[in-house]
Design brief:
single chain, mainly alpha, 57% helix, flat
């Protein structure tokens, strides 16, 4: 049997940044509906939308995402 605690200790934990976002009620309901229709979390829908938004920006605006100056 694998010792889960030992296995967890051997893995490097990468913490992802978190954000708290306030939406207008109508937009929030729309996002909830989309998430339910796609059978994903609301967070997934928001991340996907953010990724698409960033991808549509000029390359100079996206440099900070890659850690470049």
């Amino acid at each position: 049997m694998i010792d889960k605690k030992a296995a967890k200790d051997n893995k490097r934990v990468v913490r992802q940044p978190r954000a708290s976002i306030t939406f207008p009620p109508k937009l929030y309901r729309t996002l909830e509906t989309l998430a339910k229709e796609k059978k994903v979390s609301l967070a997934w829908v928001v991340r996907e939308a953010a990724e698409m938004y960033v991808a549509c920006q000029p390359a100079t605006a996206r440099q900070s995402e890659r850690g470049q100056s």
